[in-house]
Amino acid sequence: MTPERPVLERRLLAALEATPSRVPVLLGGCGSGRSFVLLRLRDLIGRGACQYVNVERVATTPERFLQSLVTASPFAPPLHAASPASAGSAREAFDATLAFLNTARASGGGPATFLLDEALECRTFESFPGLRSVLRDLVDALSASPNRFVLTTRYVARAHRLLRDAPAHFEVIHVPPLTRSEIAAAMARGTTEASPDRDELVRAVHALADGRPAYVTALTDALAQMERRGGGDAVSALAAQLAPGGQIETACRFCYELRLHRARGYGALKAILDVLAEEEPLTLTEIATRLRRTPGSTKDYLSWLEDVDLVMSRQKRYSFSDPMLRLWVRLHCRPVPPADDDLAREVQTYALARLPRPEPTGAHAPAGTAGTEADRGRPWGIIEID
Fold it and tell me: Does 362 map to a domain?
């Protein structure tokens, strides 16, 4: 069950309904739920008053993009607008796209609302003649438009660079992690009866998933299935989802390959991710030494990884932006699929680092035994591994 984001939805609607309206730009990594929020927004506004566009899926050529946009639109193009068939070049097609976004009107003549999912994928058009500043042209056009827009992208660093000098009514909104209450609401919708361990289970799912909607959805779906078969715990659910073909394993593999293919230096970047999967955080010098490359070339590789938000730097020490992706690299970036023992060991290590420590049950509980009785009913099933 996908968690709903009512607070985020209200913030986006408030930006659209402001006078003058603002252009929210929703930033979030893979699995943060950007598309789900936009589709919910479409239903809240009304499908006749707004158009959702998955730019990533239809950004092929400027001419075909224009055709897809107009054909699927609930808005009739103005009488003077150029038709997709009349566009004589890539530049003319893109200009016609901007004109349609600016001049389309909802029923009754009110402003149209466009929800542009993965809007930065318009960058694809920059390989065509006459289109060398597509994203800047898009920002300029939307900033002067009477219509309303919501943009999303998974590429946070690139969006910040693009919007650095954008007009003030572009409002950057980072998708926040799910709260425990949002996870609890999703879990309540996915089961028929309350569980006495529900609060503990919510805390476990929140900690293991790092509040990321895609991981939360996978874990809650797995737990619901386990409940129908007699019950289970969050750590076991995570191990099952990280096994080859599992929902989280598939999501991580998609994110890993997509971002690497959007960056430069594919092989070297994979090597750095392998190094950080073994140990993090590391300094530039430490990474260069392990990689057997010069600090200068390693710095370039790291900047390319930061450009697609695979790694982050804090106090000149680098680490994965997504801890679940680091776990996936440890498990799956190897010559053979992980054995069951490897999967259990790595997931348990990850869980031990993230789940809350048990409280001692008494003031004089012996070291190593405190909380043992209380933990027997805990829904996260941690097993100590030497």
Answer: no
